[in-house]
C-alpha cells in the first residue's frame, strides 16, 4: 500500500511517501480501505516535527480517515460498511489515515451517516467534528440565537470555518476573528456578520473589559482565549478546543466569579462513542453542503507532506482533503 511514513532519524525524523507492506499494519480487529484523510493542524505538527505529536516510530500520520470496512473480526462491523474515524491516538501512537489501508479497533469507528459521502466526511474531518462538539456544548449551556453575538477565533481554519457555518445555520449572529484579512469575503460567505482582526485578542489584556460576547468558540488559546473570556457577557460560555496560539492561559478568575462565565474544554480525541455518533448525526443533518464545498479542497497523498508546512504557516483556508488513492 502507498503510505506516508515518519521514521526516527539522528537529526529528528524522516518523512517520505512510499510503498509499505500491509503486513506491517498494527494490530486491530477491523481493516479499512481508506478513501480519504486530511491534513489537520496536529497532522501538520507531526509531519513537520514542530511538536512531539508522534509518540511511536515508525508512524503513519493522519488523525482521521473515511472509507469502507475490508475485513472485520468485530461483530458490529461487516465488509462494506462505510465508516469514519477521529482521534483515539491514531496518527500519534497507532498508524493513521494517510495511507491506503488502516487497521484499528472496531470501537474507534463511527458509522458514516446516510447523506454523507466519504469525501464530505473528510471535508468535515476532525476539525468539523470538533466544531460540532463546541456548538453542542454551547447549545447545551443554553445559548440561544437571540442572546447576542458569538465569536469564533481562528476563523479561517478548519474548526473556525465549520463553526461559523454551523452556528449561522442555527440562526446565531457570528463574528469571525482572523489574522488574514484576505479571507474576509470567504468568512462572510460562510455566514459571518462581521470580521475582526485577531490582533485585538493576541496581546496581554485586562482581567475584564466591556461585555460583548454571549458565546465563543476558541481554537487559538493563550492570550486570545484570556481576552475572549474577559469580554464575555454575564452567564456566557466559551468552548475551547485548540492551542494554535499557545498552550498557556494567562488569565484571571475574574470573568468566572464576577460574570458567571463558563469555560468548556472540548476534547475530540477520547470523546465517548455516543457523543461522537450524535455529533456526526447533527453534522449530516445541519451542515450546509454548499458551505462545506466552499471550505474544502482536494489534494493527493503525495501533496500532503508539503501541505503540512503550509498549515503550520497559516496559509491554508478551511480543509485539505487528501485522496489517498491518487
Question: Summarize this, please?
Answer:
The protein has 326 residues and is α/β, with parallel strands linked by helices.
Describe the overall structure.
- This protein is α/β, with parallel strands linked by helices and 326 residues long.
- The protein has two domains: 2-112 and 295-323, Quinone Oxidoreductase, Chain A, domain 1; 126-265, 3-Layer(aba) Sandwich (Rossmann fold), CATH 3.40.50.720.
- 29% of the residues lie in helices and 26% in strands.
- It contains nine helices and 15 strands.
- The strands form three sheets. Strands 3, 4, 5, 6, 7, 14 and 15 form a seven-stranded mixed beta sheet that branches. It has a six-stranded parallel beta sheet with strand order 10-9-8-11-12-13, with helices on both faces. A two-stranded antiparallel sheet has the order 1-2.
- The longest helix has 24 residues, at 118-141.
- The model has no long low-confidence stretch (mean pLDDT 96).
* CATH fold-level name of the largest domain: Quinone Oxidoreductase, Chain A, domain 1
- What is the tally of beta strands? 15
Largest sheet: 7 strands, mixed
Shape: globular
Query: How does the helix and strand content classify structurally?
Result: alpha/beta
Give the CA-CA distance, first to last residue.
12 Å
Count of helices? 9
Spans of at least 5 consecutive residues whose pLDDT stays below 50 are none
What kind of assembly state do the chains in view correspond to?
Answer: single chain
Q: What is the highest CATH level, the class of the largest domain?
A: Alpha Beta
Give the SSE string. Answer: EEEHEEEEHEHEHEEHEHEHHEHE
Helix content: 25-40%
Number of domains: 2
Instruction: Give the overall average pLDDT.
Output: 96
Strand content: 25-35%
- CATH superfamily of the largest domain, by name, is Medium-chain alcohol dehydrogenases, catalytic domain
The CATH level-2 architecture of the largest domain is identified as Alpha-Beta Complex
Gyration radius (Cα, Å) is: 19 Å
Amino acid at each position: 500500500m502507498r503510505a506516508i511514513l515518519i521514521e526516527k532519524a539522528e537529526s529528528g525524523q524522516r518523512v517520505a511517501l512510499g510503498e509499505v507492506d500491509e503486513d506491517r499494519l498494527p494490530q486491530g480487529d477491523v481493516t479499512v480501505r481508506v478513501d480519504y484523510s486530511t491534513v489537520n493542524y496536529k497532522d501538520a505538527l507531526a509531519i513537520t516535527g514542530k511538536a512531539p505529536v508522534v509518540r511511536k516510530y515508525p508512524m503513519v500520520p493522519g488523525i482521521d480517515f473515511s472509507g469502507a470496512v475490508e475485513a472485520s473480526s468485530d461483530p458490529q462491523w461487516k465488509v462494506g460498511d462505510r465508516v469514519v474515524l477521529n482521534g483515539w491516538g491514531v496518527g500519534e501512537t497507532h498508524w493513521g489515515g494517510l495511507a491506503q489501508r488502516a487497521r484499528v479497533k472496531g470501537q474507534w469507528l463511527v458509522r458514516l451517516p446516510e447523506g454523507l459521502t466519504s469525501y464530505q466526511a473528510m471535508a468535515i474531518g476532525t476539525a468539523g467534528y470538533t466544531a460540532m462538539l463546541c456548538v453542542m456544548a454551547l447549545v447545551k449551556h443554553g445559548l440561544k440565537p437571540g442572546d447576542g453575538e458569538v465569536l469564533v477565533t481562528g476563523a479561517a481554519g478548519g474548526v473556525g470555518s465549520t463553526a461559523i457555518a454551523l452556528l449561522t445555520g442555527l440562526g446565531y449572529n457570528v463574528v469571525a476573528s482572523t489574522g488574514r484579512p484576505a479571507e474576509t469575503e470567504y468568512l462572510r460567505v460562510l455566514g459571518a456578520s462581521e470580521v475582526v482582526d485577531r490582533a485585538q485578542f493576541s496581546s496581554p489584556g485586562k482581567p475584564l473589559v466591556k461585555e460583548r460576547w454571549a458565546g465563543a468558540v476558541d481554537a487559538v488559546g493563550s492570550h486570545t482565549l484570556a481576552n475572549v473570556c474577559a469580554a464575555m457577557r454575564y452567564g456566557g460560555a466559551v468552548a475551547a478546543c485548540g492551542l494554535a496560539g499557545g498552550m498557556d492561559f494567562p488569565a484571571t478568575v475574574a470573568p468566572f466569579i464576577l460574570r458567571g462565565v463558563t469555560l468548556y474544554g472540548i476534547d475530540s480525541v477520547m470523546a465517548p462513542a455516543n457523543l461522537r455518533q450524535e455529533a456526526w448525526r447533527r453534522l449530516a443533518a445541519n451542515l450546509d453542503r454548499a458551505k462545506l464545498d466552499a471550505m474544502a479542497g482536494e489534494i493527493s497523498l503525495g501533496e500532503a507532506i508539503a501541505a503540512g508546512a503550509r498549515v503550520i504557516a497559516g496559509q491554508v483556508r478551511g480543509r485539505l482533503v487528501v485522496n489517498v488513492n491518487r
